[in-house]
Each structure stands twice: as structure tokens, then as C-alpha cells.
Amino acid sequence: MVCGGFACSKNALCALNVVYMTDVINASWWVMSNKTRDELERSFDCCGLFNLTTLYQQDYDFCTAICKNQSPTCQMCGEKFLKHSDEALKILGGVGLFFSFTEILGVWLAMRFRNQKDPRANPSAFL
């Protein structure tokens, strides 16, 4: 699908967002230290990032999450990270919309009331 100008559909933008988030998560996963990966796997109760490379099996073998002991397969951390980041971005979008609308309201109120005359002022005064 080719997107040009404002012709992009909501689904295309959402798919682009998921692809971008997958790339960001994938790039940051391989930069992390093993200790940080272990802490994330334990706190999110998942193993490995995405099943995209041969390194996934190595990640899965060294996983210390609780789910690995309870069941033969664990959910991949990449899926949980995407779900968590999607929820966080929705909340941040709502907060951003709230503040943008209050700012627009403030600008409208400032333009509406800025040139009003003071009723207590002397009417014969120039300023």
C-alpha cells in the first residue's frame, strides 16, 4: 500500500507503528546486558524476544523466567513489550489530546477577553 499525503488509512498507520516499535525493541534488546535481559524476563514472565533469528534458541535456553518451569513454552517477551508499549502510548496520546485542547481553549479565552475595557477605569482617560 502506498501512502501519500493524507491518504493513509488508520490501519496502514497502525501497521507502520507496530513495525517501528518492533524494530526499536529488537535493536534495544541486543544492546542490553545479560543481567538486564534476565531481569526483564523475570519481571514480565517471558522468554526470548521474537522468534526471528537463531539467537532466539540461545535466549530461550538461558531464560530464568518462572513460566519456563511451569509450562514447556513461554510467551515471547517481544509480544508482551509490544502490548505494554501500545497501552502506554494510548494513555500518552489521551494526555496529549487533553493538554492540546486546553491550550486551544486558553488561546481562545485570551483572544476573547484581552481587549475588554475595565469597568472601574475612568472613561475619559485615553488608555
User: Judging from the principal axes of the Cα atoms, what is the shape?
Assistant: rod-shaped
Radius of gyration, in Å, reads 26 Å
Please give the share of residues in helix: 55-70%
- Low-confidence segments, given as residue ranges, are 1-13
- String of helices and strands: HHHHH
Mean pLDDT equals 76
Described by its quaternary structure, the protein is single chain
Strand pairing plus helix content: what structural class? mainly alpha
Count of helical regions: 5
Blueprint of the fold:
Elements lengths: L9 H22 L2 H11 L10 H7 L4 H5 L6 H37 L14
Helix pairs in contact: 1-5
Describe the structure.
By secondary structure, the protein is mainly α. The chain has a domain at 19-89. The protein has five helices and no strands. The chain is rod-shaped. Residues 1-13 have low confidence and may be disordered.
What key phrases describe this protein's structure?
about 65% helix; mainly alpha; disordered N terminus; single chain; about 130 residues; 5 helices
Entry summary:
With 127 residues, the chain is mainly alpha-helical. It has helices at 10-31, 34-44, 55-61, 66-70, 77-113. Keywords: Membrane, Transmembrane, Transmembrane helix.
